[in-house]
Design goal:
By secondary structure, the protein is of the alpha/beta class. It has two domains: 87 residues, Urease, subunit C, domain 1; 310 residues, Alpha-Beta Barrel (TIM Barrel). The chain is 34% helix and 21% strand. An eight-stranded parallel β-sheet has the order 6-7-8-9-10-11-12-13. The protein has a four-stranded mixed β-sheet with strand order 3-2-1-4, with no helix packed on it. Helix 2 packs across helix 3 and helix 6 packs parallel to helix 7. The longest helix has 18 residues. The structure holds 5-methylcytosine and fe (ii) ion. Fe (ii) ion binds next to loops.
Length: 410
């Protein structure tokens, strides 16, 4: 064996040794007899599959304040600021910020990332840069790129062609933003078009859907219906769906039945939507984060994303998925023990399901040897203390080590 990690606490609580050989998990057993070139005594700390960042915008990451700060805190002002900033994008600018962000993520245990790339930008610079980044980093971190028309698929006459071009260039998924299209009809049509493109090019779908507090924003039902009719179900993701938090319960109940039938994935971004939404409310002020607990209780796949790290929509952000999970625990009131454990799943296994990479993901013999060690003995403690990720293994190689902070009383 190349590596043996001894006394690993799995997320489910079992204590095992894990053997890594030639980039693959070779053995998971209570007490491994074999010898290895290197042994790490994990001492009962949590060993987990890597974190999955299922929703982030790497093209705009690290641009907060450029050319100005978001004063209103709304999605719409963010889109306008980004429209100005994106005029000066270069391949180098996007690649540098994206790679710096991926390193920040990887050192905190993230080894799978789905990023959106704005394709409503005339030269497709963001998309081309992120496709180059996907290739450049593939030995240590897996990146998926969604072709995302930030200004709307029908926002400008050339946007549909730009989307098709992005898919020809190799984007992994088709994106959309129906609630931002000029009319409800355009929004509905955009969803149909997205499904046609996904089928034509054989790609995944991840739509920014109903990211608004408008209780009349009902594109999620269109996405779910298209998923049922096309049979694409698990290859489809509805991101944000914040209007779901404003729907009346009678409609939400009907919708939930359709969502179950559709079997699509959901991504909530609690850090950002707790700050973006509710901005037009006085009091009571809505939380504007989708019905995470109810979707989970319904047995649907929900994962969590950071969405932003220092960009026009959110000037904060650390890249630490435990921050995201902790915010979900609070905002979605998932404070029960099984609910906190579910929030940990939402930044690990559920994220892998959203990305449709389950064949390459998980602590199982035969899977790639990508795993993380945390300075905590359970997912609950990891979230509560935002525990440090002490070791990150990618494809059998130790990629990064972090020493947890030391405290000394005088
Ligand atoms: N664009 C968008 O439409 N929504 C968001 N939350 C971000 C970018 C970050
Ligand atoms: Fe987003």
């Amino acid at each position: 064996m190349d590596f043996i990690l001894r006394e690993c606490r799995l997320p489910g609580g079992e204590l095992v040794d894990i053997g890594l050989e030639q980039g693959v998990i070779e053995a998971i057993e209570p007490c491994l007899e074999t010898k290895a070139a290197q042994t790490i005594d994990v001492g009962g700390q949590l060993v987990s599959p890597p974190f999955v960042e299922s929703h982030i915008h790497l093209d705009s990451a690290l641009t907060a304040g450029q050319p100005r700060w978001n004063q209103s805190g709304t999605l719409f002002e963010g889109i306008e600021i980004w429209r100005d900033r994106k005029q000066s994008l270069t391949l180098e600018d996007v690649k540098e910020r994206a790679i710096a962000t991926l390193k920040l993520q990887a050192q905190q245990g993230v080894l799978f990332v789905r990023t959106h790339a704005d394709v409503s930008e005339t030269n497709l610079v963001a998309l081309k840069a992120l496709l180059q980044v996907r290739e450049a980093v593939k030995d240590w971190i897996t990146v998926q790129v969604v072709a995302f028309p930030q200004d709307g698929l029908y926002g400008s006459p050339g946007n549909l062609e730009l989307m098709a071009e992005a898919l020809k260039l190799g984007a992994d998924a088709v994106g959309g933003i129906p609630h931002y299209e000029m009319t409800r009809e355009d929004g509905v049509q955009s969803v149909h078009r997205i499904f046609e493109l996904a089928q034509q090019y054989d790609r995944l779908i991840d739509i920014h859907c109903d990211e608004i507090d408008d209780d009349q924003s009902r594109f999620l039902e269109v996405v779910a219906a298209c998923a049922v009719r096309s049979g694409l179900g698990p290859r489809v993701t509805a991101s944000h769906t914040t209007a779901f938090a404003s729907y009346n319960n009678a409609y939400a109940f009907k919708l939930m039945g359709l969502l179950s039938r559709s079997n699509i994935n959901f991504i909530a971004n609690p850090l950002i939507n707790i700050t973006l939404q509710g901005r037009t409310d006085t009091y009571p002020k809505r939380r504007g984060v989708t019905r995470v607990k109810e979707l989970w209780q319904q047995g649907l796949n929900v994962s969590l994303g950071h969405d932003c790290i220092r960009d026009p929509w959110y000037s904060l952000g650390t890249g630490n998925m435990l921050d995201v999970a902790a915010m979900a625990v609070h905002v979605c009131q998932m404070t029960g023990q099984s609910e906190i454990a579910a929030c940990y799943d939402m930044i690990t296994t559920n994220g892998a399901k959203t990305l449709a990479i389950q064949d390459r993901y998980g602590l199982e013999v035969g899977k790639p040897a990508s795993l993380i060690v945390l300075d905590a003995d359970s997912p609950y403690e990891a979230i509560r203390r935002r525990a440090a990720v002490t070791h990150v293994f990618s494809h059998g190689k130790l990629l990064v080590e972090t020493k947890p902070a030391e405290v000394k009383w005088a």
